[in-house]
Structures are given as structure tokens and as C-alpha cells.
Design a protein that fits this description.
592 residues; amino acid transmembrane transporter activity; mainly alpha; disordered N terminus; single chain; transport; two-stranded antiparallel sheet
């Protein structure tokens, strides 16, 4: 049975049976048309330009983690080659960014990966991705909020000197450590998001600018100290790769999560003035800025202090303190606090928009889809998610659940890459016949000039996802026309459209299975050697054969008319999405 392009209601009700349930899970919704508009009470304000998108992308990506990762990864994995680890991780993140850029420009609607999964894969997978993203952003925002008060302690001379309303308090009866500062900050950000998208983005741009200025200070002042002291961190007998290339790659897997956040840009697609142009540029430029800053900071800090002597907790502050610049710790801490605030805004911005998109599709109560008429933001969804995150950050230490953030993001990245393959080879919307057959179809319609012929022509064109049942996996029904068959033979078509779609659909599925088998067997050292190598071989064979088949068969002509035209086109398909799937599954398996 195949994935059906079917948006008919129905499913698991009485008389529906198991088949109805399955069809409801795999049905795919129609891609938004360039002419379609949401109802007035569901319409978001189109206020964002490319500068706003860069502020959202950079602010959501550069968190306080980079102020710690530099020391941890350099000491344990990369050594002086830390900047190469950041470069490799940035290239891996760029693979997902390319996929996001194409889908965001073609389907500029709120919901991000949830929206793309619903259009390209099906309702069941979209539902899982939507909730994974909601949990990711909620837990991530709560964890970020609880990290602010420890960073503020430096300005007050330590944790014990913090004001009562900022310090964490222990409740003996409940054995719970509450954090009022975190809860208040979450509520403040929630109120700011309710004011309007343009106002909240402006505030995030200001906070992000302070963080970027702190990083520029680290780069400039550190470069001056490096030339003054002779770059002691690079004059080591162990060379640039003390842990080998494997250590450098292991460091890349760790710092990859420092690039998570650029996907927040895609969640604001419905609020961008010119999404076809600005969304790809916003995603690409924000990721490029983050990668450049990460690499420059790592080059400077590793050069100031030998990697084995770096403080794992405060590597940047301690590097400046070693050279007599203790006062720099205050600037660096201010940058870390601003980074946390900016990341908190970036974590809370997509949540209500994903809830709104799910409510529009009927997967959540319509309460979440309401948009305030004056501010044109989903105020109700924002208040619900803000209150939930505030309660979570106040009562719970969610640091142990922080891995959920990475799980949700990697699942979303993987599904976006799969969606690009589906878009190119088995697009869920209209699938027209090749242009060489169009004249023949029209001549048949004119020749018989009856309603039946016009209905058959409509069936050939497959229609939209509201009335079409073209499968992603499985055989499509075709209508027999002797004249069409003759024309097809004259045009030397080796595969008809239904057969090509069937082969492409099964090949995409086999490629994903191969990526899972290969990465799991390569990662699990506890497997017996024969089983491990056999699984690696099978997975590699599926992956390689899938790449070859998808390279050889033609991509679907309907991809040109899918969604909004004129947007970004992901290069090197199918190679780039397949490598993206492989990298994300590998990171997902090795997350522990």
C-alpha cells in the first residue's frame, strides 16, 4: 500500500476499520498555493525582512554553550584543531540548511518541519514531528532560562550574594530547588512575543548585537594578546591533531549542536515579506555568521592557552585571566547572559506557531489557531507555551532532559531532508504528463468533446491533493488511451509516470533504511564483528544503490510547479539530502 495524496476526512471512526486509520495516518495535505490566503482571524502579519531573519537565526543559534564548548572539546577531542571541528560541523549543518531553504521558500507557512512533513510524508509522521519540536523548544527554553542566574552571580560576587528574587531557593519539604529568576524571565519574553513579531524581533536583534560584540571583543583582544605572547597554544610537540583525525571528527559531532537554532527562521516563514528571496538568504547568512564567529573564537582561545591547560568550565575568561586581563571576565559573562536571553527568545518564538499550524490542520483544538487581530500573532498559543515553560523552569532542573532538544532537532532535520527527496521524485501535488504528451491529451479532448473525456483528462493530470490519490509507494492507476500509448512509444519513454514514481518511492525508503543500518552498525561496538560488518555491508549497499538509482532516474516535472515558484533550489540532489540524512541519523544514534 502506498502513501496517498488524500485529504478527505475520515479515518478511524465507526465503519472506517483499520484501513481508514492507516489512510488517515499517511494522507498528505495540499501544499499552500501562492493565491491561497488564511482566513482573516488566522492571518499573521508580514513584517519581517532579511535583517530580522538574520537576527532571529544568529540569536537562536549562538547560545552560552559556545563559551563552554571551546574548553571541553579542545581538552577532550580536538586540541588545536578545534576550529576545523567547527568548520566540519558547520558544513554538516549547512546540508540541513540547504534543505530547509528550499522547503521554506516553496512552502512559506508556519509550522517549519511539521508543515513540510505533513505535505511530503504524511499526517502520522507530521504529528510526531510537531510534538517533538514542541517538547524540544519547551525543554530547551526552560533549560536556557535556568542557566541565567548562575551567570549573573559573577556580577554580585558569587551565588550567595545574589538578591533573593534572583537566587535559587531550596524548599526543604518538597526537596525542590526553585528558580524565580528563570520563571520571571520566561514570562517577560512571553509578554514581549505577544506584543508583535516586529517588536519582539527588534528586541532580539538588540540582545544578539550585544552578544556578537562580546564575541568580537574576544576575537580582537585575543588576537592582540596572541601576537604579543607568541601563540603558545600552537607551539606544542603534539602538533595540531593530538587526538588524531578521529578526535577532531568526534569534536565536530559535539560542536554540531552549537549550530542548532537556524531552523527557527523557517518557523516565521508566514510573516516574511518576501519569503522566496529572504528565507534562503536569512538561513544561509545566519549560519555563515555563526560558523565564522565560532571558528575565529576557537582559533584565538586555543592559541592563547595550551589545550590541556584550558579551564573546562570557564575557558575564555580563564584564558584572558592568565594574561592579566581579569576584567575581561565581566564582558565575557555579559555576552554569555545576552546569549542566553537571545536563545530563550529563539526557543519560545517557534512554539506557538507550530501549535497554530497543527490547530489549523485539525490536530489540535481550534483555540490554538486564533490570531490576535491587533498584534497579528497567536497570543493564546504564546501564553499557553510561555506559562508552561515558566512553570517548568521554576520547579524543575531540566538539564538532564536537555538531550531531548537535540533529539527533536535531529528528527526534524532528517525529515526535512527526506521531504526534499520526496518533493523532487514523488511530489504530493499535481503530477502532469510530460510536455510531449500534452498536445495529444488536448487533441483527444477536442476530438470527443464530451464530459467523460474531460473527466478522464482531469484524472490523468492527477488534480490536487484534495481529489487525487497518487501513491508515494505503490502503483498508480492509469487510463488506457491507444493514441497516448503510441505517442509514448514514439517518444521512447522507458518508464511511465506511475512506474517511475513507484521505483522512486521504494528507493527513497530503502535509502533511509540503509542509512539507519549503516550508522547503527558503525556506532555500536558491542555487536559481534560478523554481525556488525554484515549489517554495515547491507546498509552501505542499500545506501549506495539508492543513490545510484535516484541519480539515474529523472526527477518529477511537477517539482517546478510545487508550491510557490521562484524560490531556492537545493543543489546536488539526491547526494546532498542523502548525506544529510546519514549525518543526522549518525548523530541521533550517538547522542548518548
Amino acid at each position: 500500500m502506498g502513501f496517498l495524496v488524500d485529504s478527505h476526512k475520515g479515518g478511524c471512526g465507526v465503519g472506517g476499520g483499520g484501513g481508514g486509520c492507516f489512510r488517515s495516518l499517511i494522507r498528505r495535505k495540499q501544499v499552500d498555493s501562492v493565491h491561497s490566503k488564511a482566513p482573516g482571524h488566522h492571518r499573521l502579519a508580514k513584517e519581517l525582512s532579511i535583517l530580522h531573519l538574520i537576527a532571529i537565526g544568529v540569536g537562536s543559534t549562538i547560545g552560552a554553550g559556545v563559551y563552554i564548548l571551546v574548553g571541553t572539546v579542545a581538552r577532550e577531542h580536538s586540541g588545536p584543531a578545534l576550529f576545523i571541528s567547527f568548520l566540519v560541523a558547520g558544513i554538516a549543518a549547512a546540508l540541513s540548511a540547504f534543505c530547509y531553504a528550499e522547503l521554506a521558500s516553496r512552502c512559506p507557512s508556519a509550522g517549519s518541519a511539521y508543515h513540510y512533513s505533513y505535505i511530503c510524508v504524511g499526517e502520522g509522521v507530521a504529528w510526531l514531528i510537531g510534538w517533538a519540536l514542541i517538547l524540544e523548544y519547551t525543554i530547551g527554553g526552560s533549560a536556557v532560562a535556568r542557566g541565567i542566574s548562575p551567570n549573573l552571580a559573577l556580577f554580585f560576587g558569587g551565588q550567595d550574594n545574589l538578591p533573593t528574587f534572583l537566587a535559587r531557593q531550596h524548599i526543604p519539604g518538597l526537596d525542590v530547588v526553585v528558580d524565580p529568576c528563570a520563571a520571571v524571565l520566561v514570562l517577560v519574553v512571553t509578554g514581549l512575543l505577544c506584543v508583535g513579531i516586529k517588536e519582539s524581533t527588534l528586541a532580539q536583534a538588540i540582545v544578539t548585537s550585544i552578544n556578537v560584540c562580546a564575541m568580537l571583543f574576544i576575537i580582537i583582544a585575543g588576537t592582540y594578546l596572541g601576537f604579543k605572547t607568541g601563540w603558545a597554544g600552537y607551539e606544542l610537540p603534539t602538533g595540531y591533531f593530538p587526538f588524531g583525525v578521529d578526535g577532531m571528527l568526534a569534536g565536530s559531532a559535539t560542536v554540531f549542536f552549537a549550530y542548532i537554532g537556524f531552523d527557527s527562521v523557517a518557523s516565521t516563514a508566514e510573516e516574511v515579506k518576501n519569503p522566496q528571496r529572504d528565507l534562503p538568504l536569512g538561513i544561509g547568512l545566519s549560519l555563515s555568521i555563526c560558523c565564522s564567529l565560532y571558528m575565529l573564537v576557537s582559533v584565538v582561545i586555543v592559541g592563547l592557552v595550551p589545550y590541556y591547560a584550558m579551564d573546562p568550565d570557564t575557558p575564555i575568561s580563564s584564558a584572558f585571566s592568565v594574561h592579566g586581563m581579569q576584567w575581561a571576565a565581566y564582558l565575557i559573562t555579559a555576552g554569555a547572559v545576552m546569549a542566553l536571553c537571545s536563545t530563550l527568545m529563539g526557543s519560545m518564538l517557534p512554539q506557538p506557531r507550530i501549535l497554530m499550524a497543527m490547530a489549523r490542520d485539525g490536530l489540535l483544538p481550534s483555540f490554538f489557531s486564533d490570531v490576535n487581530r491587533s498584534t497579528q500573532v497567536p497570543v493564546k498559543s504564546t501564553l499557553v507555551t510561555g506559562f508552561g515553560a515558566a512553570v517548568l523552569s521554576f520547579f524543575m532542573d531540566v538539564s538532564q532532559l536537555a538531550g531531548m532538544v537535540s533529539v527533536g532537532t535531529l528528527l526534524a532535520f532528517t525529515m526535512v531532508a527526506i521531504s526534499v527527496l520526496i518533493l523532487r521524485y514523488v511530489p504530493p501535488d499535481e503530477v502532469p504528463f510530460p510536455s510531449s504528451l500534452q498536445e495529444t491529451i488536448d487533441s483527444v479532448s477536442l476530438r470527443y468533446s464530451s464530459q467523460d473525456v474531460y473527466e478522464e483528462k482531469a484524472a490523468i493530470h492527477a488534480g490536487t491533493s484534495k481529489d487525487s490519490k497518487l501513491p508515494l509507494l505503490g502503483k498508480a492507476k492509469t487510463i488506457e488511451y491507444p493514441l497516448l500509448v503510441k505517442q509514448e512509444a514514439q517518444s521512447n519513454f522507458v518508464l511511465n509516470e506511475g512506474k517511475r514514481r513507484e521505483i522512486a518511492g521504494w528507493t527513497i525508503a530503502a535509502t533511509c533504511i540503509g542509512a539507519v543500518l549503516l550508522t547503527y552498525a558503525a556506532s555500536d561496538l558491542s555487536l559481534p564483528s560478523p554481525l556488525r560488518f554484515t549489517t554495515c555491508g547491507v546498509g552501505g549497499a542499500l545506501l549506495l544503490s539508492g543513490l545510484i538509482v535516484l541519480t539515474c532516474i529523472e526527477q518529477d516535472d511537477a517539482r517546478h510547479s510545487f508550491g510557490h515558484s521562484g524560490g531556492f533550489i537545493c543543489p546536488f540532489v539526491p547526494l546532498l539530502p542523502i548525506v544529510c540524512i546519514l549525518v543526522n541519523i549518525y548523530l541521533l544514534i550517538n547522542l548518548g
